[in-house]
Design goal:
By secondary structure, this protein is α/β, with parallel strands linked by helices. It has one domain: Spore Coat Polysaccharide Biosynthesis Protein SpsA, Chain A. The protein contains eleven helices and 13 strands. It has a nine-stranded mixed sheet. It is globular. The structure holds 1-O-phosphono-alpha-D-glucopyranose. 1-O-phosphono-alpha-D-glucopyranose binds at residues 112, 132, 134-135, 172-173, 192, 204-207, 231-233. 1-O-phosphono-alpha-D-glucopyranose binds next to strand 11 and helix 9.
């Protein structure tokens, strides 16, 4: 195996989900469904489609549903088998075979940097990916696969980037960089959630990273930063001083499903694309957008 093979991915999932309260009071935000699949399954599927074999999910209190989701569900499988629902049965079984899953508990929500550090022993001395499940990337070539491709060529950390409107920079880690090829940047600095006036650019880190193991000793020394949390961005800034770091503009449609509006937009787009729901849902939306006097009456349908 080449030492530039990326086989492991970390998916941080210990956050409190405060942006979705009260829905996330007792259920993990990672389990909110986009149409019929929980958000975290999209992240896992992107990782697997990018060649990842081992998935390390960083969990915390109240997140058991995530482990259950990626485990076998023997009673459910028996039931589906008994009632002849073969297609649903194979879909359900497939979930537990997607990858090798490992779970690490982060006992306190100390920040993204700390969550990644929790995976150190399981990662060991090899490069790895980080996927933030709030960001859904819909692309013909999976977002993470685009980064891994660049990593294999450049052999330095690669961050997934997209341009964001200038007034939105304070929601992201923002890079200072210089362009070295179409869509590829050499990262020279990073700042976590800057005020628009302090932002070095409008190129935002969008929740996909390929990192070398050298990030771990840096994370261990990183002090709490923005919002009192140990920030991955701060550790990356240190890493960029020591070794080359790249930013790749990911090609694809990105949805910030960690935000209520972004989540609704993603739901609508994925529902419209869904072969069994899309046509009826599209009709409904078109009718709904007409002025109220011109709408057809729609019957509520029984599932
Ligand atoms: C995190 C990172 C930030 C990044 C963002 C992408 O922030 O800290 O650098 O730009 O994810 O979604 P969060 O949204 O978790 O506050």
């Amino acid at each position: 195996m080449s030492r530039f093979e990326v086989r492991k991915a970390v998916i941080p999932a210990a956050g409190l989900g405060t942006r979705f309260l009260p829905a996330t009071k007792a259920s993990p935000k990672e389990m909110l469904p986009l149409v019929d699949k929980p958000l975290i399954q999209y992240a896992v599927e992107e990782a697997v489609a990018s060649g990842i074999e081992d998935i390390i999910i960083i969990t915390g209190r109240g997140k058991r549903a995530i482990e259950d989701h990626f485990d076998r569900s023997v009673e459910l499988e028996e039931n589906l088998k008994g009632s002849g629902k073969a297609q649903l049965l194979s879909q359900i079984r497939h979930i537990s075979t997607l990858a090798n899953f490992c779970y690490v508990r982060q006992s306190e929500a100390l920040g993204l940097g700390h969550a990644v550090l929790c995976a150190q022993r399981l990662i060991g001395d090899e490069p790895f990916a980080v996927i933030l499940g709030d960001e859904i990337i819909d692309a013909p070539v999976p977002g993470l696969a685009q980064l891994i491709h660049a990593y294999k060529k450049r052999h330095g950390a690669v961050l997934g980037l997209q341009e964001v409107p200038h007034h939105d920079v304070s929601r992201y880690g923002i890079v200072a960089s210089r362009t070295i090829a179409a869509g590829l940047h050499r990262v020279e600095g990073l700042i976590e959630k800057p005020a628009p006036a302090e932002a070095p650019s409008n190129l935002a880190v969008i929740g996909r990273y390929v990192l070398p193991p050298e990030i771990f000793p840096i994370l261990r020394k990183t002090q709490p930063g923005k919002n009192g949390e140990i920030q991955l961005t701060d550790a990356l800034r240190e890493l960029a001083k020591k070794s080359p770091m790249y930013g790749l503009e990911i090609q694809g449609q990105r949805y910030d499903a960690g935000d209520k509006l972004g989540f609704l937009i993603a739901t609508i787009e994925f529902a419209l694309k869904n072969p069994s729901l899309g046509p009826d849902f599209g009709d409904y939306l078109q009718n709904r957008m007409r002025p109220s006097g011109e709408r057809r009456t729609t019957r509520s349908r029984k599932a």
